[in-house]
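Sample A.
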Amino acid sequence: MLRVEHLQKKFSFTVPRFTLKDIQFHLPKGYIMGLVGSNGCGKSTLIRTILGLYQMDAGKVYFDGKKMEVAEEEIKESLGVVLDQGLFEKRWSAKKNASVYGPLFRKYNEETFERYLKEFGVNPDIALKKLSKGNEIRFQLAFALSHDAKLFVFDEPAAGLDKEFRKELLEIMRNLVIDGKRSVLVATHIMEDLEQSADYITYMDKGQVLLSDDIEHIKDSFILVQAEEYKINLLPQQYVLYRKKGTYGTTALVAKDAEYALDGAYQKHRPTIEDLMYYYTKSERVDKMAWMRNYCGHHVQERGV
């Protein structure tokens, strides 16, 4: 559904200067991909570049096999977008925004839009600037769902939303892809939500893609190990990303390749994506990006293929 090849974009006007470097990943049809990374890693910038809001310096973006720069109008018909900083006119109400922008989409359905607005509890007659952040996101989501989009691109869609609506949003995303014809790319910092919904993870760091893979494969590539400090120190250090001392011992994130060295004195746990991000961020290994790639790699495939 979405393929990004060697995308590069340099922002010389930012302080400090920022560059998206050789971004590559692909999202198959029928799946949800989480785009993650620490604040400032480039998630929102990448999304806006993919959508054509920023012009890339190099690379190619394909939607459903069609090249963005060749079939931009057709492609944008099939996109449902929810951005942290929305593209709608904040002085207008939800209803007026929809009446202006809806006709730009051939498959826009006013009844569907109004049904979702009502379901989400958004007043259609209040200016967007007067809505809470959560209700503005709800409005964008209602509009994205109203024109039969095939690829949904969400940038921090859960920002400002209560836990109950977040659960509903996860259910909406799962239902979107259930027929195998639609996909979701969602950038978020709420790891708990991704663990419940995402099939794939693309992990960014400093404008680069660190990992892009099946979420289960990523988690299976590493182990959280807990033991006394001296036992952690006995592990082959080439397999250790970072260790953290605690009250009841030391915990380390190690590559699955180190499993042969783990005897009964070590407690072993499967890491979450949040664990991986924490230990990666804390690590002082100068080669930590290469280390992560080496033990996980880039090989996103459709499950079952």
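Sample B, a different protein:
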Amino acid sequence: MRRRILKISGAAATLMVLLASPATSSGDKVPCISDAMIVFDASGSMAATDFPDGIPTRIDRVRTALRKFLPRVSATRNLGLVIYGPGSHVDDCENISLRFGPTADAGKRIQTEVDRVVPDGRTPLTKSVRRAADALGNPDKPGVIVLLTDGEETCGGNPCDLARELAATRPNTVVHVIGYKLQSLDGRSPVSGAKCLADKTGGYNLTAETLEDLVRAFDKTLGCDQLSMAVHNGHAEARK
């Protein structure tokens, strides 16, 4: 019994260290448990079936990736969601929906929102990232934004201008960009305007072509492996 208590205490101590210490690896200048916003591309192109095996669609594969990933991260990080693309505005570029700000245990809620959205519309990614930044609240507090996009800005926004603004006004906010299905026919990844958002805020600029790529990208941008392992080990010892 005493040995079990010591192991549980060790896991708790690990948690306290992780909660108190900011991460220092590249692209991770904020604590791995800081609040985060997911900016989700639900524009019309996400209905594409441009895979060797055809269907399911792009958005269906992202839904599957989130289903694999969200239960792990939502246990340790407050998450919020912005969706852009579909909507009722006459101006497609105004179809940006803040579903909710950073919330505890939000995995199921995010999955429900993403599962029921129907891809449509354009790609106002710059305005969407700004909306996500506003939802994070206090500009001095560490925060993370993960932008998933399968295309360039199509609504006249300038991601590089926004990136410079965020770097100046929200120095503790990191923007990670996951470019989905962006490779050209010759296999090279095109230069994306959204890349500035990651480059100027210290985030990752990742590309994903497959379901496995997506899971790895979400893990890298939102996961906290050490914290998840400490929680898992503590729970496992408690059950013995």
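Observation for Sample B: The longest helix spans residues 2-20.
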